[in-house]
């Protein structure tokens, strides 16, 4: 695996670190209190080239995946608004699916808008199940010139504001292999959105449900082959998971810096907190989370570039698990290091712990990551004769 950032990638990372620091961080606490997504900042991010420096309107590379990863890591490191970053990850997943599995017509229809400030969402979870794809009940019934979509999706990142949805459903008449992906306009007749959910953390990421009341789509709205949606969905989830690892690595850098400043300045029993071994232990665990998340994500991205699908899926799950479990521990330890100040809403420390809990759930729970990792281990080490 290569790894040195090019000078252009480093400049890109710094550019979006500064955007996170100067544009996203001011007002983050107020938006968290209000549970508000800032659409103006979303459009501003697009205008700075965050998306167009990754991919062109036809889905081809402009800066490429590593440039995008550099920008995402910089954005996460600079920003106090991790909910916004979560929405970025959800949006990026739709762009990636269109790049790799969309038709020319689908890319032409959606990518110019998604690169310029429209919002994308991918909808798999339903009231009856999330990670368990077999529990999906949304259906596509053939009709003249297309399909009628019926069902309900729950807890979908970006759903309250999305301009385009990638919807996971079952196509009637295909038998057991019926999972199919559909591209839906946010303003489609029959698509009824729920409210922006009132969440514990990641409150600035608009999350909600929507119903499909016989939403009409055409055959041109099918992404990939009918009945082959599961493979595309799994590829999307792996991409989603490696991005969580990258984002957590960026976030942990800012939290480490803040924690180190605290333990150097604060004294206990006549010496700085930094001289207590039990405090050092907490800080070192944060560093391990940052580096483990970063390098496992890079390894997953490298496997994706090399076309090693099995390694890609497994490493992405390891990255996601490392990031989510480590960030929950780090969030709680940050509160402990800062003491009562960490528990106060005024200082933003407790928000780290609240936001971290969501990462254990979004993009597949930790338990699902372990299940996927074990499946790949069984494939790698088959039974001996």
Model description:
With 385 residues, the chain is of the alpha+beta class. It folds into three domains: 7-118, Acyl-CoA dehydrogenase/oxidase, N-terminal domain (Butyryl-Coa Dehydrogenase, subunit A, domain 1, Orthogonal Bundle), CATH 1.10.540; 122-227, Butyryl-CoA Dehydrogenase, subunit A, domain 2, CATH 2.40.110; 230-380, Butyryl-CoA Dehydrogenase, subunit A, domain 3 (Up-down Bundle), CATH 1.20.140.10. Helices cover 54% and strands 15% of the residues. It contains twelve helices and ten strands. It has helices at 7-24, 28-34, 39-47, 65-78, 82-101, 104-116, 229-265, 277-306, 309-338, 340-343, 349-359, 366-380; strands spanning 120-123, 139-143, 146-157, 164-171, 179-185, 191-193, 207-218, 222-223, 267-268, 271-272. Strands 1, 2, 3, 4, 5, 6, 7 and 8 form an eight-stranded mixed beta sheet that branches. The longest helix has 37 residues, at 229-265. It is globular and about 80 Å long. The mean pLDDT is 95.
């Amino acid at each position: 695996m290569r790894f040195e950032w090019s000078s252009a990638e480093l400049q890109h990372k710094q550019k979006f670190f500064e955007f996170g620091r100067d544009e996203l961080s001011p007002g983050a606490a107020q938006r968290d209190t209000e549970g508000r997504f800032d659409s103006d900042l979303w459009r501003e991010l697009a205008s700075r080239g965050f998306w167009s420096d990754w991919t062109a309107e036809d889905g081809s590379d402009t800066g490429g995946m590593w440039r995008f990863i550099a920008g995402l890591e910089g954005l996460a490191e600079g920003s106090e608004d991790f909910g916004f970053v979560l929405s970025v990850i959800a949006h990026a997943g739709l762009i990636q699916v269109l790049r790799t599995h969309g038709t020319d017509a689908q890319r032409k229809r959606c990518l110019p808008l998604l690169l310029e400030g429209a919002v994308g969402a991918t909808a798999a979870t339903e009231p009856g199940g999330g990670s368990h794809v077999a529990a999906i009940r949304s259906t596509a019934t053939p009709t003249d010139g297309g399909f009628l979509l019926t069902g309900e999706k729950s807890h979908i990142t970006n759903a309250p504001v999305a301009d385009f949805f990638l919807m996971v459903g079952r196509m009637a008449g295909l038998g057991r292999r019926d999972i199919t992906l559909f591209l839906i306009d946010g303003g489609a007749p029959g698509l009824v959105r729920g409210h922006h959910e009132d969440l514990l953390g990641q409150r600035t990421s608009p999350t909600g449900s929507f119903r499909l009341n016989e939403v009409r789509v055409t055959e041109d709205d099918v992404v990939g082959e009918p009945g082959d949606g599961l493979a595309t969905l799994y590829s999307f989830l792996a991409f989603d998971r490696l991005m969580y690892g990258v984002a957590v690595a960026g976030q942990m850098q800012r939290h480490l810096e803040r924690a180190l400043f605290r333990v150097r300045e604060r004294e206990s029993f006549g010496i700085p907190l930094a001289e207590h071994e039990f405090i050092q232990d907490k800080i070192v665990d944060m560093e391990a989370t940052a580096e483990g998340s970063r390098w496992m994500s890079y390894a997953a991205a490298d496997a994706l570039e090399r076309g090693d699908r099995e390694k890609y899926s497994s490493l992405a799950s390891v990255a996601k698990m490392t990031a989510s479990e480590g960030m929950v521990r780090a969030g709680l330890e940050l509160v402990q290091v800062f003491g009562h100040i960490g528990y106060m809403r005024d200082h933003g420390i407790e928000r780290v712990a609240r936001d971290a809990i969501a990462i254990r759930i979004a993009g597949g729970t930790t338990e699902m990551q372990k299940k996927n990792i074990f499946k790949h281990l069984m494939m790698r080490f088959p039974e001996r004769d």
